[in-house]
Amino acid sequence: MVGDQDSVGALDPLVGYHLRRAFGAFSGDFTAAMEGTGMRQVLVGVLAVVARSPGINQGAVGRVLDIKRANMVSLINELVEAKLLTRETDPQDRRAFALAVTDRGREVLADSLARIEAHEARMLAGFTETERAALLELLRRIERRAGDSA
Amino acid sequence: MVGDQDSVGALDPLVGYHLRRAFGAFSGDFTAAMEGTGMRQVLVGVLAVVARSPGINQGAVGRVLDIKRANMVSLINELVEAKLLTRETDPQDRRAFALAVTDRGREVLADSLARIEAHEARMLAGFTETERAALLELLRRIERRAGDSA
DNA sequence: TATTGTTATACTCTATAACTATA
DNA sequence: TATAGTTATAGAGTATAACAATA
Hints:
The structure is a homodimer.
Chain A: H1 15-33, H2 41-52, H3 58-65, H4 69-81, E1 85-90, E2 93-101, H5 103-123, H6 129-149
Chain A binds a DNA duplex through helix 4 and strand 2.
C-alpha cells in the first residue's frame, strides 16, 4: 500500500508532516463537499466571521482569519458580487466599509455549515466524542503558541 | 485580542478550521526554521522519501507524498540541479529514472531534520510526550480515512 | 493499452510594496 | 503619522489535459 508510514522514512515521527497530510485530507473532502456551490474554505470563513460581527470591516476580518488586507479585497468583491455580503461606507470612519451578511448569504452559510458538518462526520468517523474534543483542544493549543511569536 | 475563538462564530467547533490554523502556524514556523537553506517542506519530503528508498522513481515518490507526476518534474529538477539528488535512467525500465540522494543531499537532509526537530519542539512546547503521541495518533487516523475514499 | 516522464496551462493562496483617502 | 482599502505583482501549491518513449 502506497502512502504507508514506513515509506516516508524520517518524516513519520513528525507532527508537522501528519498535520500537513491530515489538513490535505480535510481540504480535499471539503472541496468535494462544496461542489457546485461556488463556496471555498476562505469564503465560508469570511461569511461566518461577518455573520458573527455585523458591521465589521475587511481589515478586522482579515486579522481574525489571518488573511492579509491585500488579499481580502478580491474575496470581499466575490462575496459582494454574489450578493452574499453588503459593503457600505462606515459613517463613523469613512475609510472603512461596514460589512453585513445578506439573507441569501445567511442561506448559503447555513447550507455550507450543513455540508461541513457532514464532511466533518465523514472525516472523523470512528472518533469518539472524547477523541474529537481532545484533538480540538490539542490543535487549539498549537494555534495559541503561534500567537505567542506573532 | 484578535483571533480569539469567539470572533470566528460558527467556525470555532470545527476540527477542519483548527486543523487549518494549526497547519498554518506550523508552516510559518517551518519556513522560518529553514531560512537561508533554500529548503521547503516538499523538498525535505522528497529527500526523505528517496533517502528511505534509493532507486525509487519520481512517480512513486509522488504517490507516497500525494504529489502529482506533473508537479514532481520541477521539484526533482530543483534537487538535481542543487546536487542533492542523482537521476539516472533505470536499466530495468528505461521510461523511469532511478533517484538517489548524494552525500551533499544527506548532509542537507540531516541539517533540515535537525532544524525541524527544534521547530517541532517550539511548536509543541508545553505538550507532554503523551499528548504529543496522542495528537500524532489522531492525525494518523484522519489520514487513513482519507485513503478509504481515494 | 498502460505507465513514466514531460510540457503547457490555470487557479488558488500567500506575500510584499506602493498608492489613495481618510483619521 | 497611522490606518482602511486598493492595485500590481510574484512565488508556491495544486490540478488537468495532451504528448513521446517505453513497457
